[in-house]
Structures are given as structure tokens and as C-alpha cells.
Predict the 3D structure of the following.
Amino acid sequence: STKLFIETFDRVRDHFQGIFRKLFGGGRADIVLVDPENPLESGIEITAKPPGKEARSITLLSGGERTLTAVSLLFAIIRAHPCPCCLLDEVDAALDEDNTERFCMLLDEFLGRTQFVLITHSRRTMARADLLYGVTMGERGVSRRVGVRFEDVGENGEIKEPPTA
Amino acid sequence: STKLFIETFDRVRDHFQGIFRKLFGGGRADIVLVDPENPLESGIEITAKPPGKEARSITLLSGGERTLTAVSLLFAIIRAHPCPCCLLDEVDAALDEDNTERFCMLLDEFLGRTQFVLITHSRRTMARADLLYGVTMGERGVSRRVGVRFEDVGENGEIKEPPTA
Amino acid sequence: MKLKFIELFGFKSFAERVRFDLDRGVTAIVGPNGCGKSNVVDAVKWVLGEQRARSLRGNEMTDVIFNGSERRPPMDMAEVKLVFDNTERVLPVDRDEVAIGRRLFRSGESEYLIDGQNVRLKDLRELFMGTGLGPGGYSFMEQGKIDSVLASNPTDRRKVFEEAA
Amino acid sequence: MKLKFIELFGFKSFAERVRFDLDRGVTAIVGPNGCGKSNVVDAVKWVLGEQRARSLRGNEMTDVIFNGSERRPPMDMAEVKLVFDNTERVLPVDRDEVAIGRRLFRSGESEYLIDGQNVRLKDLRELFMGTGLGPGGYSFMEQGKIDSVLASNPTDRRKVFEEAA
Ligand SMILES: Nc1ncnc2c1ncn2[C@@H]1O[C@H](COP(=O)(O)OP(=O)(O)OP(=O)(O)O)[C@@H](O)[C@H]1O
Ligand SMILES: Nc1ncnc2c1ncn2[C@@H]1O[C@H](COP(=O)(O)OP(=O)(O)OP(=O)(O)O)[C@@H](O)[C@H]1O
Ligand SMILES: [Mg+2]
Ligand SMILES: [Mg+2]
């Protein structure tokens, strides 16, 4: 229904603005209905202005900036409609160290209501995990799980010496 | 013309098979005209079988395997039609350490005829570069270049102490 | 509601029975390219009722059954099991623990299980209605897909918001 | 033929005149998210004759002109210059060094330069015909686009090969 859509949209918008500022350490972002008279059919405009930069088309954002903006919107939706489990596959791929760190800090705010499974190659994300598993193919073509400690993981996620698991 | 297309296709195919084996340390791949009677209109099938695994649809390949397969094809085309300069923007994003290393070794085989500019966040790729530049935004929104030495770069590409450039 | 563990057997590269006991907070899964990490995400989508082979990177549903490696023959069945902590009674089942399972046989036959009882796919999907967990929605962010949250196509962008509301 | 340097002034985030002297082998460019690395790739595409704003992540061509930051006003012109070592006479110019340049003014006026001489866009593009260097073709692999080399759409996949032949 229209009323439900608008209520949800406004809540998502509110969360989006806050999460964006947190992930970027400033700046501002918004989502706007192009045709507010016609919410169920209207297009949706997304604007994002990283701190210190001018507002411009989101197509001009860098790869990492787009990821952070997308994550802000995704998590705004999750905050509006919490899901108990959230599986994220390499969402930090385009992020540098500082942005990865801010992303990990964002997860902390959702842990009350949402459980996360993250697939990652980033040591910084691994360092924030409560539990770490490695998947290996000791026998080619066949996946196995190893318990992994953070110290066993080399740069960029290769498992150096899987402990006897 | 048809003759030119078939000649180029066969050369690309030949290079593709060899480069794939090099990047994967084995396995095999191929490109095939679906309709060889009608080369200028035919669809093209790409097959890729990483070492130790069965041949299956390339849609089932992992993110890193797809990147390596795509790079094999891209470089096969470059070998068939050398271009003097090649700018690659974060093509190593999905690759783990070992695959990044093999990618860097592949570049060595092309250096005779092709000059490379690589944008990367990977320390391993940076280590293989002959020359390293950092781009920073000390003043927000304004890009500047700094000369960077490999020792100045932290994990995942952040520039720790830009030397006086 | 928390996911206690994910168990795979015969699902894609998991020829052996493998179980991932999850943390209540953040569990990270790491490993080299192609070792099977994203396959774990596919497994959770699938057992929650995903019916589109494309969404699991395959062409047909039987693509999810382990189809052999250099040393092993193909298997006849894929099975995934999820066990939830349901002490908060988020799921409409009056038990502290709820197990769901899905099996697919080479013949094309399927089985769907809730606490060991055979049910229809419909029942399994309805179990999660209203929890926010399911193959659509925001529980899953597949590898390489984070950018699609900012879809530039107006119809795709609306879809992003409609799934939220 | 080697690219000696790339110089940007007023192009996207490069409000200051910045020059990248390139190695004959591999030059790597690193830095945090959003600092301007991919803008350098856009700059080379643009000066070689790219006419599609979309291919430069913009909506209109004037999007490539520095349009301000929190401390600086927009600029009126974007300029990119490339200087080539032409001792092998790969370019049809009888000089050891060839400079090409492109300027775009806020008014929409454009200038194209070969060794300081004003030419038409057509002349600039024809200079590189047959060298393999140019906005199409395989000199550029943009961020996030490596996967498109394996395009699953048959028409897109044919395009990949047709540009090679
Ligand atoms: N039915 C199947 N039987 C056996 N192996 C399969 C099957 N389907 C897919 N695979 C294999 O699973 C592997 C892909 O695994 P997955 O996508 O989980 O890798 P990954 O760990 O996520 O790697 P990356 O870090 O590169 O993303 C492929 O090598 C593929 O061949
Ligand atoms: N016309 C312009 N004027 C000023 N700044 C611009 C202009 N066009 C784009 N930008 C800015 O350039 C930045 C993007 O730079 P770029 O894409 O090169 O980043 P990057 O270094 O590749 O980052 P990443 O590692 O995240 O890919 C954006 O923040 C964008 O706002
Ligand atoms: Mg993966
Ligand atoms: Mg970039």
C-alpha cells in the first residue's frame, strides 16, 4: 500500500543519511522520490556528497565511494526491516583500510539484532570477526573447513598453516 | 572480412589456452565458434577447467577464477593485437595472493611490447611495479601526486608517510 | 533468532559433509580463490527456498550437486541443513531449536524438511515469511553485487526499495 | 612506442597541474578510495578521443571539468596532455616525441592538439589508428569491468572478439 511504502521509505531515508555520515566520516546523502504525488510508480533519486567534495552524480563516485554508499543504503534498509541473519560476500573488496575499518565499526551497531556471516579477503575484516573459518581445497575440487586463528592468516587471506582441525 | 576474423580468432584461441594454463598452473580452457560455418554471426562459447576440477559452466567459477579466465582472454587478445600501452584499473581486486603473483608474472611476458599502468590496492602488485606513484587528497577534493617507495605503503595500499615529493 | 550452524553435503564443491558452527555475532569465512566460500552462501540461499538456478550461478538446478573432481566421481544428491536457535519463537514452531533441510537428487527429485519431517517447498518458504530471511530481500549480498544496490536503471532501483517495503 | 608522461589540469579532481612520468615497463598508481586514481585512466581515454560521457562515468562531457571542492570554486577548463616517445615512428609523425592534448571549456568548446597545433578530433583519433591505442579496444580495462570480458550475452561477447579482429 502507498502508506506503508512511504513510511518505510522515510525510515530508510533517515537511516541512510545517518549511516552515510558515519561511514564517510561526514558529508551527506539522500534518497528522494522523483514524483512524490505518485510514490508507487515514482523513480528514486540517490545523491551522495563525500566530505569536502561537491555534490555530483553518483556515477562519478570512485569504486570505494560507491561501495560505501551502497552499503549505507543496504544497511539503512536492514535497520528499517531487520533480518536476523545477513550474509555478505566480499562487500569490502573495493575498500581501502580506513573504509574497511569504518565498515567493521558499522557492523557493531547492528549486532544486537543481526548475525553476520562475512566472506572476505581483508585482514582488517578478519580481525574484527568473533569467529574465523578457513575453507580449503587440500584435495583439489573438494572443499573442507578448517578452524583458523587470526595469526594463521597471511596478507590477503591465504591460510598459512591450518592448525590440526 | 571472414578470413581475417577466423585468423585472429584462431590466434586468440591459441594464446588463450596457453595463458590460462600459466595463470592457473594447469587446467585447460578454450574458445569455440558455435557455428563455424557462419563465423561472422556465430556465438562464441568459452570453456574453462581449473586444474583438478571438472569442466563445468563458467558461471559456476568463483570470483577469482572468473577474473583469471577473463584476464587470460584479455591478454590473449593483446598478444594477437599488441597495443603499446595498457591501463588496468584494479583487475587484481578479486585475486588472492598466489593468483596475484601469477598475474604479475604474466605481465613480465608482455613487457617487451606493451607498457603497463596498473591501478591497484594490492601490495604484491605494487612490489612488482618498476615505478610507484601515490595519489592523495591532502586538500579534500583535490588530487595530487606523490612519489612513493614500496616501504611507504601500508597493507592494502594506504600511503603511510608520503616522502617530500 | 540465531543461526546455529550450516551443514553442506554434496552441495557444489562440498563433497564431504562439512559443518560451520556460527558465532552469535560475526563469523568470517576466508580462503583462497575457488575454495568454496561463496558456495556456502549459495547453500544458505538454496535451503531457504531459492528456485532460480541463475541466482546460484548455475544453468540448471542439478548444477548444485557435486559433479566430480579429478579423483572423485559425481554424487547423486546435494543436501544442506540449517539449524536455528528459536528460543525467542521468531519462527512459528514451538521448539527451542528448528532444523530445516533441503535435498536434490540427480533424478530431479527434491525433498524439503522441517525438523526431519518432509514438507513442501511452500511450507519451508512460509516458515520464514515475516522474518526477513529468505532468498530475496536483504539477507544476502552476493559477490560483486553490492554495486547493484545503486542500480541506475529506474526499474531496478525501484525493485531495491520495493523489496524493503 | 612508449608513453612518456600523462599531465592533467582541471580534469575531474585534478584541480592542480599534475604530471605522471611513466616507466617503460610497469607503473603502478596507488592511494586511498576516491583520491583520483581512476580519474587518471579516464583522462587518458578522454585525450585519445573518447566521446561518450558515460564511458567516463559522467552524464555530460562537461562533467570532466573540475567543478569545485569545499575550498575551491569550479574551473573553466579541463586539459589533458600525453607525450609519446616516437623514435620507432609508430605514429605517422616524423618526430622522436609526439605530444597530444585535449581541452574542454565550460562553454562546451573543445580544442584538440598535436604538437601544439590545433587539429580536429578526427585527426587526433586517426593518429592512433592501427596502433591499438584508443578509447575502444583493449588498451583500457576499467575498474569493475574485467568480468565483462566473459560477457554471457551472446551479442556482447561477439563485440569482445570483433574489437580484437
Ligand atoms: N556442482 C559442483 N560440483 C563441484 N564443484 C563445483 C560445483 N559447482 C561449483 N563448483 C566449484 O566451486 C568453485 C567455486 O567456489 P566458490 O565460488 O565458493 O569460490 P570462492 O571461495 O568464493 O572463491 P573466490 O575467492 O574466488 O570468490 C569453482 O571452482 C567451481 O568449479
Ligand atoms: N568534475 C569533477 N570535479 C571534481 N571532482 C571530481 C569530478 N569528477 C569526479 N570527481 C571526484 O573524483 C573522485 C573519484 O576519483 P576516482 O574514481 O579516481 O577515485 P579512485 O582513486 O579510483 O578510488 P577507488 O580506489 O575508490 O576506486 C570522486 O570523489 C569524485 O567526486
Ligand atoms: Mg567467492
Ligand atoms: Mg578507482
